[in-house]
């Protein structure tokens, strides 16, 4: 059994590499489905009490989105008629894989039932191939407009959902929805992979700290994921927003990234403050609050400048 799990875990690592070095659409899709099947097997053979239910839900959702991707991608490249319907299939399949609004319905319930290491795989390596598929979508203006609309709405949707979540894994799911929107927006300006790796390093440190019950490390990782200065994710968000400002014709569209970032900040700070109140000495809390207030002021000044 352990050998079988090692085989599937290895496929989770090598399938993204196969998709990156390949330029063939069917091979990229095949590598994505190999990853999906490997993830289903890893969930099924885990120690979770709900492993059968979780693996079945994940399999059904990802299989449907995989079929939509295959049909949409194949017919878009081969057929000149009914392009709108093919484009719709492609965008819906890709949005489901990434967990973008309005195809985010599975993200929070799924993450709430997974272990931390499974969450780390689902929010990291499993997103590499769908993000790589954005290069195919970006060639079509209609497809790209649909993806951009979903990404901007995901920023607001994730922030709102994060503030109503009652458990930490649900917050991670809402955060994933928000950051998926940022991935797509950053793609426009060739900043996607920089943003993705900064985000994933922060997420990885957070999940490690939660596994080892290190509240202080978890607090700093949450602050990093929130995008507060002086953390790197703040610089990445600031760069994306500056590029987006010069790209859009109306400043009203800035409401989506800025509003999503501000709304998301509330639930990040809520959990950071809760961690420090619960696990830290009382004299450390005022120091942390001073840091938070200072960081928020710096962030507002930087965004205004």
From TrEMBL:
<feature type="transmembrane region" description="Helical">
    <location>
        <begin position="285"/>
        <end position="304"/>
    </location>
</feature>
<keyword id="KW-0812">Transmembrane</keyword>
<dbReference type="GO" id="GO:0008137">
    <property type="term" value="F:NADH dehydrogenase (ubiquinone) activity"/>
</dbReference>
<dbReference type="GO" id="GO:0005743">
    <property type="term" value="C:mitochondrial inner membrane"/>
</dbReference>
<feature type="domain" description="NADH:quinone oxidoreductase/Mrp antiporter transmembrane">
    <location>
        <begin position="22"/>
        <end position="256"/>
    </location>
</feature>
<dbReference type="Pfam" id="PF00361">
    <property type="entry name" value="Proton_antipo_M"/>
</dbReference>
<keyword id="KW-0520">NAD</keyword>
<keyword id="KW-0496">Mitochondrion</keyword>
<dbReference type="InterPro" id="IPR001750">
    <property type="entry name" value="ND/Mrp_TM"/>
</dbReference>
<keyword id="KW-1133">Transmembrane helix</keyword>
<feature type="transmembrane region" description="Helical">
    <location>
        <begin position="195"/>
        <end position="213"/>
    </location>
</feature>
<feature type="transmembrane region" description="Helical">
    <location>
        <begin position="143"/>
        <end position="164"/>
    </location>
</feature>
<feature type="transmembrane region" description="Helical">
    <location>
        <begin position="252"/>
        <end position="273"/>
    </location>
</feature>
<feature type="transmembrane region" description="Helical">
    <location>
        <begin position="87"/>
        <end position="107"/>
    </location>
</feature>
<keyword id="KW-0249">Electron transport</keyword>
<comment type="similarity">
    <text>Belongs to the complex I subunit 2 family.</text>
</comment>
<feature type="transmembrane region" description="Helical">
    <location>
        <begin position="220"/>
        <end position="240"/>
    </location>
</feature>
<dbReference type="InterPro" id="IPR050175">
    <property type="entry name" value="Complex_I_Subunit_2"/>
</dbReference>
<feature type="transmembrane region" description="Helical">
    <location>
        <begin position="56"/>
        <end position="75"/>
    </location>
</feature>
<keyword id="KW-0830">Ubiquinone</keyword>
<keyword id="KW-1278">Translocase</keyword>
<keyword id="KW-0472">Membrane</keyword>
<keyword id="KW-0813">Transport</keyword>
<feature type="transmembrane region" description="Helical">
    <location>
        <begin position="119"/>
        <end position="137"/>
    </location>
</feature>
<dbReference type="GO" id="GO:0006120">
    <property type="term" value="P:mitochondrial electron transport, NADH to ubiquinone"/>
</dbReference>
<keyword id="KW-0999">Mitochondrion inner membrane</keyword>
<protein>
    <recommendedName>
        <fullName>NADH-ubiquinone oxidoreductase chain 2</fullName>
        <ecNumber>7.1.1.2</ecNumber>
    </recommendedName>
</protein>
<keyword id="KW-0679">Respiratory chain</keyword>
């Amino acid at each position: 059994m352990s050998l079988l799990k090692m085989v599937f875990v290895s496929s989770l690592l090598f399938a993204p590499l196969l998709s990156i070095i390949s330029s063939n659409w069917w091979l990229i899709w095949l590598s994505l489905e190999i990853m999906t099947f490997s993830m289903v097997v890893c969930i099924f053979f885990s120690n979770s009490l709900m492993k059968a239910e979780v693996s079945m839900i994940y399999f059904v959702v990802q299989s449907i989105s995989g079929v939509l991707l295959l049909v949409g991608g194949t017919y878009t490249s081969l057929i000149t008629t009914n392009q709108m319907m093919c484009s719709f299939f492609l965008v819906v399949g890709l949005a489901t894989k990434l967990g973008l609004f309005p195809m985010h319905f599975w993200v929070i319930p799924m993450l709430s039932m997974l272990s931390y290491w499974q969450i780390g795989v689902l929010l990291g390596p499993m997103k590499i191939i769908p993000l790589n598929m954005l290069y195919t979508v970006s060639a079509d203006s209609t497809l790209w407009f649909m993806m951009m609309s979903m990404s901007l709405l995901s920023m607001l949707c994730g922030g709102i959902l994060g503030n109503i979540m009652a458990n930490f894994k649900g917050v991670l799911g809402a955060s994933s929805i928000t950051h998926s929107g940022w991935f797509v927006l950053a793609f426009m300006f060739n900043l996607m992979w920089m943003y993705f790796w900064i985000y994933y390093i922060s997420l990885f440190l957070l999940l490690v700290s939660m596994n080892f019950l290190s509240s202080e490390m978890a607090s700093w990782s949450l602050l990093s994921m929130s995008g507060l200065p002086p953390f790197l994710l703040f610089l990445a968000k600031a760069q994306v927003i500056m590029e987006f400002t010069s790209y859009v014709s109306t400043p009203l569209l800035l409401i989506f990234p800025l509003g999503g970032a501000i709304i998301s900040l509330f639930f990040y700070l809520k959990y950071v403050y809760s961690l420090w109140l619960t696990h830290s000495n009382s004299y450390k809390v005022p120091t942390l609050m001073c840091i938070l207030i200072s960081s928020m002021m710096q962030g507002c000044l930087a965004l205004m400048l």
